[in-house]
Known about the structure:
It is a single chain. The protein is an alpha+beta fold. The protein has 2 helices and 3 strands, in the order βββαα. It has helices at 41-52, 61-68, and strands spanning 9-15, 20-27, 33-39. The longest helix is centred in the middle third of the chain and has 12 residues, at 41-52. The two termini are 25 Å apart.
Amino acid sequence: MGKPARAHLSASLVEGWRxxxxxxxxxxxxxxxxxxxxxxxxxxxxxxxxxxMRGQPVSxxxxxxxxxxxxxxGHDL
Length: 77
């Protein structure tokens, strides 16, 4: 393996069991990793849960949450 490219943006999309997982890496002018971002499918699906819960009593949240099976911390990759 060689050194990472200088001032480069890399992105990878893979399919996880909940949906798409996106990895994004950015290197600086020296070829050192400057930023990394991993987005779990649950990140996008929390919005769907909020739409499903509109007009519902809060007591239904545990049942709806289990139906969506979302990650609270986004680290269940």
